[in-house]
Specification:
Elements lengths: L2 H23 L6 E7 L7 H14 L1 E2 L2 H9 L7 E9 L2 H14 L4 E4 L1 H5 L3 H12 L17 H9 L3 E4 L13 H19 L5 E3 L10 H8 L4 E3 L18 E2 L1 E3 L5 E3 L2 H9 L7 H11 L1
Parallel strand pairs: 1-3, 1-8, 2-3, 3-4, 4-5, 6-7
Antiparallel strand pairs: 9-10
Length: 294
Amino acid sequence: MPFHYQLLIILSPFFSIVRKIGVMTGFISKNCLRVLAYHDVPESEEIIFIDHMTWLRENWNIVTPAEFEMMILGTKPIIGNNVLITFDDGFISNKLIAEKILNPLGIKAIFFVISDFIEIKNRSKSYKFASNQIVPGSSINDIPRNWENMQWSDLAALIEQGHTIGCHTKTHVRLSDCSSKDELEVEIIRSAEKISNKLGVDINHFAFTFGNIDSFSRDALKVAKSKFDFIYSGIRGGNLGIFSPFAIRRDAVAYQLKDNKCRLFNTKLLSVFLSGFLDFMYRSAREKIDTWCK
């Protein structure tokens, strides 16, 4: 684990005390609405994922996508600590996690998928797509062997189980690199239409790729707003009193090794990020995307 994460774990008891004092004095709201962003959860990380869900169930209210929609739109009050679970990209591990862990616990999540990735039928082609698009510049030999894609039938099964499917572009392009409105519409609008037609459901949720502000743009947001009711970033922050449902903040829950394997944070580190103590580092990015929403 990187040193700065180890340092945050050491400081976690201090953060906890400061937060309790802040809530008691009214400086920090006792209510909270946050979103967690998972990607691949390999079998080796399933125990830690279970730890996440166990800890969250004890300390947070894990909301359904429908409850989150009402909270973000202001039609349902945000009381206490509330969190939504999401997954990006469309890895087969997402479906396995849903069936093995989420479903028995009654937890419903949003799965943001890349439509071209879901179309792939061949394992080696899924690795090639991942090396070219999901972690561009990577060698195909550095793609974890479990990075296979879900199929349309897997997404249909997730919907049947009560989960929600969202759009994560057509090819996982960095949207800030798109040079025309037509290209943006292909990546955002046409992708969502493909998913909707294949699955027979409306696609109302969109998460832009790579998550950081430099990977998005005002033009991309404008196109996305014409199609979706809810737009998600990878920018850390809470969603209590959020400026717009088109600028939803999310917290990453893992870090990647040099070989691209995902390692989930332990619950102490997860609690640090959910406490909001590092949100200040992303303030300028949040303010920028908020101005795009006006």
